TrEMBL record, chain A:
Keywords from the UniProt entry: Chloroplast, Disulfide bond, FAD, Flavoprotein, NAD, Nucleotide-binding, Oxidoreductase, Plastid, Redox-active center, Transit peptide
Protein name: dihydrolipoyl dehydrogenase
Amino-acid positions noted as binding NAD(+) in the UniProt annotation, renumbered to this chain: 268-275, 291, 364
Cofactor(s) required, per the database record: FAD
Primary location class: plastid
Compartments in which it is found: Plastid, Chloroplast stroma
Positions annotated as active site in the UniProt record: 546 (proton acceptor)
Role summary: Lipoamide dehydrogenase is a component of the plastidial pyruvate dehydrogenase complex (PDC).
Record-annotated disulphide pairs: 127-132
Domain (FAD/NAD(P)-binding) ranges: 90-425
From TrEMBL, chain B:
Protein name per its UniProtKB record: Dihydrolipoamide acetyltransferase component of pyruvate dehydrogenase complex
Location of the region described as Disordered in the Swiss-Prot/TrEMBL record: 125-156
Entry coiled-coil feature ranges: none
Keyword annotations: Acyltransferase, Lipoyl, Transferase, Transit peptide
Domain named Peripheral subunit-binding (PSBD): residues: 185-222
Length: 577, 471
């Protein structure tokens, strides 16, 4: 078992897992280590890498041959570049220093590429400054408020707590301080590794050529062998909605928590809307959801969505309108409240008018790709997104890849998650340095940090059944409950389920969905299993510490009924789903 | 441990699916035996076994309602087992003909919880079948909130007639968007509360921004409804809101529903002309009796209630009240309400027919009422039917105080502590006696000073010679 685990690591994890750990190390260090230390880090990592590849000799030989084959042409092209009349300022220029660009830059430096990153705003992008990071600070507060306000829960634990209150500015400061801290960590980690940070808005002038600069000095031009676009996204505001930043706001404003309205309408019930509903209701607001689809929480597995609605919506001070569009939202002025005009999503007939204290627009995010100069390389954007192939190569209007130009993260719209952007960036760098790599997006987990949390990886049940119908295989579903987990019961948080969607014939994991305490932390066992191609019959033999929440996942794997037997010491080839 | 847990919980969907299907087959087979005669198929939907240790399940909610068309694989009902809430799906197409166990009800594994008809024509037949086979679902303890019966539609009607003076000023502040009452603007929580408390939002006047109806308006409307339905009630319907266990200094904490109701009652009491008469009663005999029968579960509260009730038998005027300002209402029974302080408020459980019930039963009844009051499970008739109220602060060492008359009743008696006192007797000696002071507050429109004095004299006689209390 031990042996096989090591082997499976050597196959694809060498590409993604190890650089990831590097990312985390730098990310979490408040003071970045000095340069030599980092170099030593790299050296160590290389050694580890070598160690793995020596182990991997026991693999079937063809994979080794494959990687050799890929190595050859790349090194040839490198020498071509060297002999070319023009040499480049950088090996790699990344436009946009969000989590995607940062992940790519770190990995590129590790791989020995001379790297620059262009940022027109602040380092860290949406995630760090206006997204995941500050929202986690607010959610940490809301989680504690919820605990303290839940008298019944406290009594059940034998605790006595005086009425809980909060200081809005204090909460807002916590979110802001966290963003600042993480932003500094990110900046320092790049500086320490020797990534050049170029300030200004970047745009592409032509192949290998990028212009950047601010209004006063717009004309700086750098050349690079390869260019990665990682410009991210901005909140999407549908037309007819007037955002004033005070009473009609987007997540950008909401994260500053300048006010806690008595009644806030949230347009859109996806991750962002759901997380904000958790924050606002914990702080005393009442919430009205406005959802265009017929069901709240579209995009989640229906069963998880249903349970989540029972726990996160119904008992809270939340009501909702589904199947309606908000066609016109007018900010509050002259003593009048915010008005929201609703029409039926299907018949387009006026349905209702709401009057609330504030409205949060959480209808998704739009790519931030204006002014990138993509015309110069004959690229046509699709609804603002930069078209890419599965290797993140930018496609021109004919659908052919543009040489040396890549796009990662929200700007390509494949999977609008910070960690997906970072993984895509690392995948690109892998390709640039001679190792073909295709990222399996189905192995990328997603999480919604409500209380309790929701997390998922892979397919939902309807998606899996559709795929099974098409490809002619059988699908089974296994479920376990947090109510049967000792640790969850000790925390008095038995609400929640975990759900596994799998192929009973070969034990392949198609999707895992968790709703319950610390679901976001629990999903990685499943996402790693999918990434590494581990089958249920193998992973079910792995041991989990008792009593821990991870036993929920253990139970889940154990309750699956797989016809295939454990594969013994030899692990199956990873399967890109 | 992990393995142990696994055996107790195994709900892969395959097991979820098969169990209901198997149980449905059983009925299918029985009906197919009679296939020659009966083409119609009415299937029973059984309580599925969701885990190996599950013996009964609680219906959390019916996803479908009677008459709904069901197609195979759709969720019909949500069942809570000993481990989890699970959606139960149907494995037949058809119509949900009759629900036999309502939401909140509990049914044993394998017992029928609903009937599934194959065609619409069979729905009626299924319904009659459901009515004849009598399922006996035991209601789950938590499923009957205290409020239910007090917030019926009729009491809501009353809520409309009488708007508390404090909010009547708001009546002019009609919500600008409400289009003359055509549209109701209420906050999400207010809507939720209104549904729970069965308050019609169209008739609630909003006090929020722009006249919006907010939660406290609904609570007030519900509380008024309760109050009018039950004059002596000091508790309102919503069990949801509770005072926090501690008090934060410098903060302003809004009333809970109960406290709001108390506040309104207290204000209302100002419109009643009351007066007070005090009396000192020697309790040596009563104390001795108490000591003797304490072991049989008799409480001092029950003894006092009993003594008061016996005195009231002889003075019906004290047990009367003035409801309309023009007449005496002589109550047919003597119901002694006793004020009890509970977490964040005050409630008055009622010992009904205290004059007729023997002291032992009365004591048992009292204990039961107090337990219920603490659990907030008193039924309205258990707290709003009092005709005379007792309030006892003796246990704190309070020797005398006066009480405010609860609206709708004629008199309330404040009972102080019984204390050893040096007294001079008529024969010129000085002795030690235990004495307590009582102080009655009464509505002078129906009860006069002489009435009260006579009543107190009778009461003192009963307490000082308590043999009648244990008859």
């Amino acid at each position: 078992m031990q042996y096989s685990a090591t082997l499976s690591l050597s196959q694809s994890a060498a590409a993604s897992t190890i650089p990831k750990s590097n990312y985390t190390v730098n990310h979490s260090l408040p003071f970045s280590p000095s340069k030599p230390i980092n170099l030593r880090f790299c050296g160590l990592r290389r050694e580890a890498f070598l160690g793995f590849s020596s182990l991997s000799r026991s693999q079937p030989p063809q994979s080794k041959i494959r990687s050799d084959k890929i190595n050859c042409p790349i090194s040839a092209s490198l020498s071509d570049n060297g002999s070319a009349p023009k040499s480049f300022d950088y090996d790699l220029v990344i436009i946009g220093a969000g989590v995607g660009g940062h992940g790519a830059a770190l990995h590129a430096v590790e791989k020995g590429l001379k790297t620059a990153i262009i940022e027109g705003d602040v380092i860290g992008g949406t995630c760090v400054n206006r997204g995941c990071v500050p929202s986690k600070a607010l959610l940490a507060v809301s989680g504690r408020m919820r605990d303290l306000q839940n008298e019944h829960h406290m009594k059940a634990l034998g605790l006595q707590v005086a009425a809980a209150g909060y200081d809005r500015q204090g909460v807002a400061d916590h979110a802001n301080n966290l963003a600042t801290k993480i932003r500094n960590n990110l900046t320092n980690s790049m500086k320490a590794l020797g990534v050049d940070i170029l300030t200004g808005v970047g745009s592409i002038l032509g192949p290998h050529k990028v212009q950047y600069g601010k209004l006063d000095s717009p004309g700086n031009i750098v050349t690079a062998k390869d260019i990665i676009i990682a410009t991210g996204s901005v909140p999407f505001v549908p037309k007819g909605i007037e955002v004033d930043g005070k009473t009609v706001i987007t997540s950008d404003h909401a994260l500053k928590l300048e006010s806690v309205p008595d009644w806030i309408a949230i347009v859109g019930s996806g991750y962002i809307g759901l997380e904000f509903s958790d924050v606002y209701t914990a702080l005393g607001s009442e919430v009205t959801f406005i959802e265009a689809l017929d069901q709240l929480m579209p995009g989640f597995d229906p069963e998880i969505g249903k349970l989540a609605q029972r726990v996160l919506i119904n008992p809270r001070k939340i009501d909702y309108h589904t199947g309606v569009f908000a066609t016109k939202i007018t900010p509050a002025k002259n003593g009048k409240p915010v008005t929201i005009e609703l029409i039926d999503a299907k018949t387009k007939e006026p349905k209702d008018t709401l009057e609330v204290d504030a409205a949060l627009i959480a209808t998704g995010r739009a790519p931030f790709t204006d002014g990138l100069g993509l015309d110069s390389v004959h690229v046509e954007r699709k609804r603002g997104f930069v078209p890419v192939d599965e290797r993140m190569r930018v496609l021109d209007f004919k659908g052919d890849p543009v040489p040396h130009l890549y796009c990662i993260g929200d700007a390509n719209g494949k999977m609008m998650l910070a960690h997906a952007a970072s993984a895509q960036g690392i995948s690109v760098v892998e390709q640039l340095t001679g190792r073909d790599h295709v990222l399996n997006h189905l192995s990328i987990p997603a999480a919604c940090f409500t209380h309790p949390e929701i997390s998922m990886v892979g397919l939902t049940e309807p998606q899996a059944r559709e795929k099974a119908e098409k490809e002619g295989f059988e699908v089974s579903v296994a479920k376990t409950s947090f109510k049967a987990n000792t640790k969850a019961l000790a925390e008095n948080e038995g609400e929640g389920i975990a759900k596994l969607i799998y192929r009973p014939d070969n034990g392949e994991i198609l999707g895992v969905h968790i709703f319950g305490l610390h679901a976001a932390d629990l999903i990685h066992e499943a996402s790693n299993a999918i990434a590494l191609g581990t089958r249920i019959q193998d992973i079910k033999l792995a041991v989990h510490a008792h009593p821990t929440l991870s036993e929920v996942i253990d139970e889940l794997f154990k309750s699956a009924k797989v016809k295939a037997h454990a594969s013994g010491p030899i692990v199956n080839e990873p399967v890109a789903v | 441990m992990a393995l142990f847990l696994q055996t107790t919980f195994l709900t892969s969907s395959s097991s979820l699916r098969q169990k209901p299907r198997l149980s449905s087959w059983a009925s299918h087979i029985s009906s197919s035996r009679a296939r020659t005669r009966v083409h119609a198929k009415i299937r029973e939907i059984f309580m599925p076994a969701l885990s190996s240790t599950m013996t009964e399940g609680k219906i959390v909610s019916w996803v479908k309602s009677e008459g709904d068309k069901l197609s195979k694989g759709e969720s019909v009902v949500v069942v809570e087992s000993d481990k989890a809430d699970m959606d139960v799906e149907t494995f037949y197409d058809g119509y949900l003909a009759a629900i036999m166990v309502e939401e909140g009800g509990v049914a044993a594994v394998g017992s029928a919880i609903a009937l599934l008809a194959e065609s619409q024509e069979e729905i009626e037949e299924a319904k009659s079948k459901a009515a004849s086979s009598s399922p006996t679902p035991s209601p789950a303890p938590a499923s009957a909130p205290v409020s239910e019966s007090t917030t019926g539609s009729d009491s809501v009607e009353k809520a409309v007639v009488v708007v508390p003076p404090s909010t009547s000023a708001m009546a002019s502040a009609v919500h600008p968007a409400s289009e003359g009452g055509k549209r109701v603007v209420a906050s999400p929580y207010a809507k939720k509360l209104a549904k729970e408390l069965e308050v019609e939002l169209g008739r609630v006047i909003g006090s929020g921004p722009n006249g919006r109806i907010v939660a406290k308006d609904v609570e007030a409307a519900a509380a008024v409804a309760t109050e009018l339905g039950s004059p002596a009630a000091k508790v309102s319907a919503a069990p949801a809101v509770q005072a926090p266990p501690g008090i934060e200094l410098g903060s302003v904490v809004p009333f809970t529903t109960m406290q709001g109701a108390v506040s309104r009652n207290m204000l209302e009491s100002l419109s009643v002309p009351t007066f007070r008469v005090g009396y000192t009663i020697t309790t040596d005999a009563l104390d001795a009796l108490y000591k003797k029968i304490k072991s049989k579960g008799v409480t001092m509260t029950a003894l006092l209630a009993k003594a008061t009730a016996l005195a009231l038998v002889k003075h019906p005027a004290i047990n009367s009240s003035c409801r309309d300002g023009n007449s005496f209402t002589y109550n047919s029974s003597i119901n002694i309400a006793v004020a009890v302080a509970i977490d964040g408020g005050l409630i008055t459980p009622v010992l009904q027919d205290a004059d007729k019930v023997d002291i032992y039963s009365l004591s048992r009844k009292w204990k039961e009422l107090v337990d219920k009051a603490r659990a907030k499970q008193l039924q309205p008739q258990e707290y709003n039917t009092g005709t005379f109220t007792l309030s006892n602060l003796g246990m704190f060492g309070v020797d005398r105080f006066d009480a405010i008359l609860p609206p709708g009743t004629g008199a309330i008696m404040a009972v102080g502590a019984s204390q050893p006192t040096v007294v001079a007797t008529k024969d010129g000696r000085i002795g030690m006696k235990s004495q307590m002071q009582v102080n009655v507050t009464a509505d002078h429109r129906v009860i006069y000073g002489a009435d009260l004095a006579a009543f107190l004299q009778t009461l003192a006689k009963i307490i000082e010679d308590p043999k009648d209390l244990t008859f």
